[in-house]
Structures are given as structure tokens and as C-alpha cells.
Inverse folding.
């Protein structure tokens, strides 16, 4: 940064207009020594508390401030070209440059987002490892936004069928194997607990989504198993939930959406390990077919003839509630 610009910032600090508190945004118009019309300074807080997560949030604060002022381009001055810093900047910018209100008719203009993100290095070219980190940050940021798109959809536009279609489209785009099982196959696998929830919905058939990442150079074992719940609307069934905040029950499929985002990222990052994601998708609705409190339900207690994870065991398994 030019010395003239530093002096301006020091003057603002002396007068108390610039404190350096975490995420404090200060706009300096026509900064001396810079060609830019505006310089946005974001407070980083205490040095000892600074971390990569903190850096992502700082970039996010800058992007949101820019959007609120109708800005369309952001050049972020890199203090370090280390791979981790570059990835954090790109990921933080993409996650912050997200419009969650696609169905809102009255818009403020801030939803347009930024057109270009520039990484300023002071004239030095990014090293090869930093270039790779830039792409990694983009992959992670886009995967998170894909997940948010799925979760933010209303339940009439994100049914089990819709979720399966989005999963199939994503898998085809990124070269993943995708298999979608319907009600007859789910019952054939003796998935009684899953089917007990699904049987309450008379309009939307259940779907079991299975996505596999199987790189040819990966060993047969271990296989990582990922499971995410995909209840596209959870009314509570017969034990119906209170009406307050019922509209938020569309987010009960966030675990499944997260697994789809994870698989999208894995397909592009290309680790040398096999990964299988399973997303049971259904609605939990009150009807004459809904299971009742006290019913006896038989779960998938026997090994089915058709294995969802084609190995004797999964190495690790995370369940996203």
C-alpha cells in the first residue's frame, strides 16, 4: 500500500474514525496514492484472535458492504500469497456474494452482487500453489451456495422428487454416479423406519438418493459413508408441531442438501478415496396413512440383498441431522 494512503489511515485512526474493531467497515474516498475511487478498510480485530475463519468473515463483511452500496468490483489486497489465505479470500467472497431472496418481488438493488473479484498482490504473480488454492476456494464457496439454494427453496418447490432431480443434475454435471430409488425399492430394502415417515405423505413419493464418487485410482477400501436427512417438510406427522415457525420446517432437508454440496466439492477436488452419500428424502405429513405414536416399526435390521455401499464396511460415517 502506498505511504500516502497509510498516512491517511493513520490520521483516521488518530481522530477515532478508524478503530480496527473486528468487521468495522470504513470507506475512504479518492485515497491518496491509489487509482481506485474508494478504499474499503475492514477492521481485523485483535491480532492474537486472527484465524483463517476470521479472514473468510472479513472478506464477507467487505463484500456485503460493497453490495449495500451498489458496488460491482472488489480488489482485495493480499497481505500474504500463502495458499490458505488465497483460498479463504475467494471462499469468503463467494459465500457473502449470495442472494437468498430470489422470490422477493420488491428488491433494494443490493441483490445484484459483484461482477469481478480481483486479488491484488503488489505486482507479484501468484505462485502455482496459490493458483490451485484460488480454485479450491471457488469450489468450496460454490458448493456452499449450491447447498443454500436447495435449503432456501419452499417445500412446494423442493419436494423429494425435486431434490432427487437436482441431485441427478449435479451428479451428471460433475461426473458422479447417481441412483434414485422409489417407494417400491425402499420397501423392498425393508427400510421400515424410513417408510413409516414417508407413508404419511399422500402427494409426494419418497426418494432414496445414492451418490457415489469412485475415482479409478482410489483403493477399494476404505469407503467414506455420508448420510444426510432429506425431510423436505417436517410437520411432525400425527404429533403435529406448533404453528409458530412451522414454515421453517422446510429446512429439515438441510442435512441432505449439505451432503449434495459436499459431493459436488469432492467431485472437483478429486481426493483418492471412495465416497458414498445417502440421502433419504420424504415429507413427514399428517394424514390417515401417517404412522401413529406407539406403532411398532421394523427397521432395516437384516442386510438387504442390494447393498447401498458396495463394500463390507464404511471407514467413517457422519450423520447430518
Amino acid at each position: 500500500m502506498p505511504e500516502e494512503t497509510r498516512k491517511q489511515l493513520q490520521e483516521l485512526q488518530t481522530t477515532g474514525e478508524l478503530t480496527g474493531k473486528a468487521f468495522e467497515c470504513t470507506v475512504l474516498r479518492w485515497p491518496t496514492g491509489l487509482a481506485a475511487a474508494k478504499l474499503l478498510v475492514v477492521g481485523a480485530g485483535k491480532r492474537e484472535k486472527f484465524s483463517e475463519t476470521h479472514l473468510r468473515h472479513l472478506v464477507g463483511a467487505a463484500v456485503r458492504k460493497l453490495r449495500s452500496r451498489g458496488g460491482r468490483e472488489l480488489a482485495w489486497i493480499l497481505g500474504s500469497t500463502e495458499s490458505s489465505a488465497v483460498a479463504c479470500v475467494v471462499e469468503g467472497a463467494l459465500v457473502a456474494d449470495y442472494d437468498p431472496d430470489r422470490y422477493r418481488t420488491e428488491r433494494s438493488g443490493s441483490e445484484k452482487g459483484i461482477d469481478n473479484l480481483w486479488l491484488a498482490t503488489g505486482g507479484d504473480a501468484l505462485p502455482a500453489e496459490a493458483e490451485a488454492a484460488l480454485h479450491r476456494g471457488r469450489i468450496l464457496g460454490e458448493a456452499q451456495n449450491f447447498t443454500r439454494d436447495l435449503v432456501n427453496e419452499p417445500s412446494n418447490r423442493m419436494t423429494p422428487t425435486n431434490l432427487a432431480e437436482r441431485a441427478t443434475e449435479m451428479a451428471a454435471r460433475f461426473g458422479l454416479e447417481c441412483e434414485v430409488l422409489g417407494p417400491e425399492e425402499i420397501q423392498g430394502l425393508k427400510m421400515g423406519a424410513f417408510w413409516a415417515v414417508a407413508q404419511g405423505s399422500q402427494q409426494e413419493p419418497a426418494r432414496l438418493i445414492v451418490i457415489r464418487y469412485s475415482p479409478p485410482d482410489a483403493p477399494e477400501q476404505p469407503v467414506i459413508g455420508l448420510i444426510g436427512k432429506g425431510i423436505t417438510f417436517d410437520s411432525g406427522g400425527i404429533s403435529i408441531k406448533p404453528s409458530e415457525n412451522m414454515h421453517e420446517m422446510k429446512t429439515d432437508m438441510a442435512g441432505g442438501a449439505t451432503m449434495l454440496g459436499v459431493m459436488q466439492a469432492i467431485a472437483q477436488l478429486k481426493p483418492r478415496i471412495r465416497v458414498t452419500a445417502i440421502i433419504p428424502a420424504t415429507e413427514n405429513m399428517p394424514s390417515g396413512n401417517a404412522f401413529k405414536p406407539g406403532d411398532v416399526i421394523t427397521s432395516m435390521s437384516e442386510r438387504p440383498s442390494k447393498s447401498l455401499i458396495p463394500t463390507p464396511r464404511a471407514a467413517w460415517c457422519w450423520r447430518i441431522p
About this structure: Strands lie at 25-29, 38-42, 73-77, 116-120, 177-181, 207-213, 223-228, 230-234, 274-284, 316-320. Helices lie at 3-14, 52-68, 83-96, 128-152, 160-174, 183-188, 192-198, 254-269. The chain has two domains: 3-151, 156-320.
